[in-house]
Amino acid sequence: MKNFEISVLDLAPVKQNRTIKNTFNDSLNLALAAEKLNYKRFWLAEHHNMASIASSATSVLIGYIANGTTKIKVGSGGIMLPNHSSLVIAEQFGTLESLYPGRIDLGVGRAPGTDGLTAKALGRNPENINQHFPKQIQELQKYFSTENENSLVRAIPGEGCDIPIYILGSSTDSAWLAAKMGLPYAFAGHFAPQMMERAFEIYRNNFEPSEQLSKPYIISCVNGIAADTDKEAEKLATTLYQAFTNLIRNDRKPYAKPIEDIDSYWNPTEKAHVMNMLHYSFIGGHETVKTKISAFQNFFEVDEIMITSHIYENELRIKSYEIFRKTVDDLFAITA
Question: Of 56, 73, 110, 194, which has the fewest Cβ atoms less than 10 A away?
Answer without folding.
Answer: 194
